[in-house]
Design a protein that fits this description.
The chain is α/β, with parallel strands linked by helices. It is about 40% helix and about 15% strand. It folds into 2 domains: about 100 residues, Rossmann fold (3-Layer(aba) Sandwich), CATH 3.40.50.720; about 60 residues, no CATH class.
């Protein structure tokens, strides 16, 4: 059985420089996904053409649009790059250029050319859950996201805020605080016998 060895992290993309190469349907999908989770993401998109919907979304979120073909100079200062063009040769070149510069890169719908995948995300206030199928089934990730959105209560954020306030009042070392919070939160999961 193949294992999912991906390591999930939560990036502060408002503090990073993200480049999307391609302004078509896939570029729109990736931008929408990114901005849904991080509305203040620092994003630039380079493309020879842009879908009107992408332009509209970009304008709402202060995303910089550059009308041009891809050039390696657009990688300067980038932390993350997402290649979404219809031209596989351009996407592979973006990948190779990023690898030479140790920039994290995702070539949409091409797992061998990805350092990371953009999985399903469930957000309820401060609570965020990332879902990965190891690039095998974006549809399953979407269905799992919908499931968790339905079963996680809307007031879970209130619980997180209250626990944070309570945590600040606790005395003792890390282990004592952890034991107290673990005891307090055991009731959140009701196991059925």
């Amino acid at each position: 059985m193949e294992k999912n060895e991906l390591y999930p992290i939560f990036l502060k993309v408002a503090q990073l420089n993200v480049l999307i190469v391609g302004g078509g349907n896939v570029g729109l999908e990736k931008l929408t996904f990114l901005l849904k989770s991080s509305p203040n993401a620092n994003v630039t998109i380079v493309s020879i053409t842009f879908l009107p919907e992408l332009i509209e979304l970009a304008n709402k979120h202060d995303v910089k649009l550059v009308e041009d073909s891809y050039k390696v100079s657009y990688l300067d200062g980038r932390h993350i790059v997402i290649a979404t063009t219809d031209n596989i040769d351009v996407n592979v070149q973006v990948y190779k250029d990023c690898k030479e510069r140790t920039i994290l890169v995702n070539v949409a719908d091409n797992p061998p050319y990805c350092d990371f995948y953009m999985g399903g995300i469930v957000t309820k206030g401060n609570i965020k859950i990332a879902i990965s199928t190891n690039g095998k089934s974006p549809t399953l990730a979407k269905r799992l996201r919908q499931f968790f959105e339905d079963v996680i209560p809307e007031n879970i954020d209130d619980l997180a805020k209250n626990l944070n306030t309570y945590r600040k009042t606790l005395k003792g070392d890390f282990q004592e605080k952890l034991t107290t919070l673990n005891t307090l939160t055991k009731g959140i999961i009701n196991k059925k016998d």
